[in-house]
Write a structure and sequence with these properties.
The chain is of the alpha+beta class. It is built from seven helices and 18 strands. The relative contact order is 0.17.
Amino acid sequence: MPHTRGSSHGKSRGIQKANQDENWVKIMEDAYQQWFELEKETGTSLYRQSGLLWIQENPASGLLKFEDGLKRMDFKYKRLQPDEFKRQYPMLKYPNCQVLYEDTAGRLKADKCLSLVQDLYVKYGGTLKDGCQVTSIEPGSVISVHTKDESYQAKGIVIAAGPWTNKVTSLLDLKLPLTPTAINVCYWKGEEDTYSMEKCPTICEMIANPNTSGPYVGPFLQFTDPYFEYPGYIKTCLYTGTEVDPDYQDVDIDNKWDVELLCDYVKCHFPLLEPKPSIIDRCIYTVTPDQNFILDSHPKWKNIVIAAGFSGHGFNVSPVVGKLLSEKIMDLETSHDLSQFAIGRFQ
């Protein structure tokens, strides 16, 4: 740990509060507070504020619905008029769009976050076991977990296996509606400092699901990150990709329909970037049908708690997820309402 075959590798992850779901905003406020407390405890910088532009082409029905939700919660944001947007961000070309600006959004230094949390876990008495494939689980008042080399017993366990979740829960006769999805993350070279974080916020454009003819669907967003990971390169990706088996995720590696779509997108909206990506990384999302997490107990065994299906937006709330899982496994009242994350919603 860490490794590059799951969903938590890389140098950065976006973090933002804006959402039309009030419960989600409360969870995000908690997450921000916990990241700040972790920075204070360790003296390590983990977060950098960049701001975020929410964009959608006219008639922008999805963005207007999103804005209505923000107004109901009295969420602070700024609507940018076309002339103002063009003046502030001349390096961006969105001639027929509506734009909202969220100033509290930023980037988490993901690799540092992950390393720091693992170190603190060990510091406070935890034991990390790496490279242990689970071969069987025996449920009961005391649960036995067997790997190829060792066995473990506990009164309660948490299954948080990312794209491998169904391979683990199948040992307990449970199949969840989870789709491991390969996301191609592209990095484009641009003119020096043109898209630096000082000049350009993170960009999140709401676009239609390219795989359906239906209306706007939330997770299909165009995320564009100012220079942060590779100096002089801007990061872009879609919130959708190709379904994969996590054990064979490179089998279809030449299927880059999403990269071709991104090339057209960059040419249209980022004229100062080179026309082709210079670097392509891969990330695995584990997606549920409604793009919400699963944070719930096994339907038969309440002392087995499952955390899965984070759909590309789990890293930023991971401190809150950890707290909720600990509350759940100890049968305590949870800090936040978990009804929208229940397994039963898919039945």
